[in-house]
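Most newcomers find our protein records easier to grasp once they have seen one. A record pairs a protein's sequence with a compact description of its fold. An example says more than a description, so a record of this kind follows:
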Amino acid sequence: MKRSVISILVVAAALASCKEKIVDERPIKPDNSGEDGLVTAKYQNPVIRNNCPDPSVFDDRQRTGYFYAYSTQNGESGEDDCIYLPVYRSSDMVNWEYLGNAFGGSERPQWVSDTRIWAPDMEYIDGRYCLYYALGHWDNPKKSACGVAVSDSPAGPFTWTNLKSINPSADANGMLVDYASQGVSNSIDPNIIREATNGDLYLFWGSFGTDSGVWAIQLTPDGLAIAPGAQKTYIAYQTEGTYVHYRNGYYYLFGSKGSCCEKNKSTYHVVVGRSADLLGPYAGPDGKLLSTKSNAFDNDANTMLRAPSSGYFAGTGHVSEIITDDKGKDWICYHNYWSGNKYDGRCLSMDEIIWENGWPATRTGFPSEGRVNGPAFKKKSVTAAHAVPYQKHSLSGGTPGDAFSAPGPLVETSDSCGCRNTWRLSDEYVEQFKVKSIYE
């Protein structure tokens, strides 16, 4: 069967100036030799080679047949090319297609002024897609807040002003928590988890700061408002990017510590604690509590994933949901700076989770750098997906889906929030480098 593949002829030349490891950026075709009707695509990190910080990966195979990835705002607010919440789609978690802005066009929630859209989390509740997000304010964390928007499609557009028509107790703008209502500064990084025995929904949120930390509070069954009379519970000290996963009687809390946004100097790393109770207390492998003020979660004993000493990746953190493939293997995505290729955006990487003595780990404790086997899925679930950073800069000259397309060198665009770099395809690259179709 013939497949049209777009191959960049000058990848090596374009990246040679890096004087570092050269990565073949051509998209990766599925390996159809898998056993038991399963298909595996080999991949090499990162899998989304574009700015994709604070990712959430959502498994929607049962409804649409795809996985969806969402990330923090990409661009400077108010600029024409700003994507207020990027959405990607994939059928194999290796090849990703950029779909657009979750809010449609240039629309975005701005019920707190001068904030940016950060750290989304996606859930399917009561027949609708619920997108949880933060309105983040870097200079004044007390202005930050978390909210929810809804849609009948995982790609959006999501709306946030109609929630009272669904749940009269919902906020007019979909706000869930902020400093005024909960007394938690840096109210960012929402994550939704169900209690395993009764199905109650809880919001975990929070970040760094003396009056912040990570907290949890119960939501209404539709996920659109704080449950009547619900009180917040303190969960973790000086942690952010929380994700909670239930497995074999334990809740596992993944969090990120260290500096997130200093490019190759970032010290971000992923820590983990577990508890038999959703509301904790959460203890690490060495028995130390996440809720206690200490440096116990800055050591190797409680760290699951960190950047390698080689410097090829940096700032490894903010994990997404764990996805189980059709072979029963668990996979987790996260962001990191691709320092070895001089990319200053935080790209999306992925690795397999290995469970050892009841604790999650990756094979090396670092992001994988070589080409490895990706998740295995049934053949009917896998189609040719496309890695297209921005529709307006599609290298194939058409719209996403016309042909395979690989991102070229990236350039920084202006952004008033220096910690959140913004990236797009270089116009110079599109003009100077040619693309050739190869048929096999």
Q: What stands out?
A: The first strand starts at residue 4 and ends at 8. The chain has a mean pLDDT of 81. The helical segments are 11-15, 179-182, 427-432.
